């Protein structure tokens, strides 16, 4: 696949966006990709027509025909991978996930006295313990992350998990951890993003942008013109789904946990396979973000994520700088506060209202915010690609402290890759009655 893209003269950024990315596939990118592929096919067809008369060009014709075929295959694959996977992700999984959330809600409504809110534990603010941040609306995914971390921790009682979800999933998430308390004395705090009241639209650019996008939507809806409702919905939803507060929450960790010095940020599509405590002791050389780098050859450089035709980007960043990944990051919160990096993030996010610096996602603003303040970690800490790359070696996976199912093929979906699924399912609490009822297909 890698060489196909460059051989066919297609931008490698498409490869990143359509096959490797952890963020939802952007319809606009898929459309652009389709347009370019169709353009390539057209040019190839024209050349064949022009060359038809001269017999000595047979070879060339055959080569062009092969190109048409290869490009078409790529398009079909991209559509399947992108649009189709998001379709499945949006329909079939939520069936089981919804079922689980509903059962948990039902349990809570049936037994209100069992689920009264408890006082926050002092451990939640104890800087001497090992703190984790997990931001997700997916109960089963979060339970796997926490369960795998606890099972592999030498002393679970020193580990504190700060789960933040949205208002809609708060009760379900709380009931889960009440019904299935974590083992070994580990500590779990569950909060809704709405409880962090400093995160409002006068402080957070993403929320302000969401509000103005919603205003635009109202304006579009009321406008009398010849667009159908579907077309309007397409236009407005395309922008807003990437601006979810839960996705951008990681940029506010120092303010959310003012007493803590370090926190380990984990995505909800990871599995922990080793004791991680060494991460809190690693020397970060006064840097803020400890992460594994993802570049190889010309791939996954800053130029793939940022628009280098913009003067501010060209001025400030090296296009060849190596990108790194979100998903397992050890953040030094003191250094973050000292360097005022949240202001940096706000600066870039404000400038990108018109999407002229980057298109979508949280990795581009992350790459900008933590440029020159990221310390590269040994690759065995965090092995990526289990959601799209079938050729990761099992040795590499076994050695990894954390494995990451970034990509479309999440382990809780029907389209998960079979060879990697078991590494996730072994941490699913399959004895839990609701998990059995809700058909997770384990
Ligand atoms: Mn992820």
TrEMBL record:
Pathway(s) the chain acts in: Glycan metabolism; pectin biosynthesis
Keyword Lipid metabolism appears in the UniProt entry: no
Lipid biosynthesis in keyword set: no
Catalytic EC class: transferase
Enzyme Commission code(s) on record: 2.4.1.-
Coiled coil: none
First-listed, main subcellular location of the protein, grouped into a coarse class: Golgi
Gene3D superfamilies found in the cross-reference section: Spore Coat Polysaccharide Biosynthesis Protein SpsA, Chain A
InterPro entries per record: GAUT, Glyco_trans_8, Nucleotide-diphossugar_trans
Family: Belongs to the glycosyltransferase 8 family.
Protein name, per record: Hexosyltransferase
Classification lineage: Eukaryota, Viridiplantae, Streptophyta, Embryophyta, Tracheophyta
